[in-house]
Description:
- 69% of the residues lie in helices and 0% in strands.
- With 326 residues, the chain is an all-alpha fold.
- Helix 6 (137-144) crosses helix 8 (184-219) and helix 8 (184-219) crosses helix 10 (234-259).
- The N and C termini lie close together (9 Å).
- It is a multi-pass membrane protein.
Amino acid sequence: MKYLLQRIAFYLFTAWAAITLNFFIPRLVPGDPVQALIAKFQGQLSTQATQSLYVLFGLDKDKSVWQEYLDYWGQLFHGDLGLSFTFFPTPVSEIISDSLPWTLLLVGITTIISFFLGTGLGVLAGWRRGSWTDGLLPVTTFLSSVPYFWLGIIAIYLLTGPDSFFPSSGGFDNGLVPAFDQYFIPSAIRHSVLPALTILISSVSGWILSMRNMMVTVSSEDYITVAHAKGLSDRRVAMSYAARNALLPNVSGFALSLGFIVGGTLLVEIVFSYPGIGFQLFQALGAQDYPLMQGVFLIITISVLVANLIADVAYLLLDPRTRKEG
């Protein structure tokens, strides 16, 4: 319990530091977002309206940075992430709530599939060393080093076109309204196939390599030899003894990868113009949209910290050696 409380205190401090940086970093970006917004109206706003925009967006020049910082914390406690400059006057929370499900479904499903598929193939490759599965290692080593977005660019070049089944951008066909019906769902699935495949191909290779290496290491342990000496079946030794212990690093790695679901595929969403969190962040950076940048960074930060805490707890439960006695 003491260890768990220490970890929670550490992550609370880390969250405070991350939110503080989240406040200051966008303000260091050169440019004036309010002036950029005014330029869209081609000078049709009066001086009073301009000053009102600065106050509305929390950039009142009469306020000190410290007062803006305190106001920012007050807004967070009330669940107010401000108004977006890019999609003015839409609240940031509404934009994130619309784009977050796209990222969670795309990256979440592919992360889970790649973990179970890669772990299973890694167990097979590590337990049956010297078989045909070892021939896959050079391919998996190469694919694990290839960035998601590079595979995405190649997929767009090779598999998309005027007569192709796979669209090159977007999350659904033009003219459709997001809804759970027979028109929107097939369209959304078709648009997500290529982004999902690029993530799956690149990520599954890493799980195969890590699990295969752990299986090789565990297979040389004394308790594996003892299990064979007892006359246990090869399958039972592989699954109940070797794979069970080799799985520990992959489980913690899987928990950490869940934290990067929100922001880990930013470039993939940009390449495919997929309407997720990463694409919204890209648009916010181009428009110096402080509130939207801060909102996206906040969601990414919290998800990573929660995933790290889950990884610590999972490892504590799975490996008794990490537990501290009173």
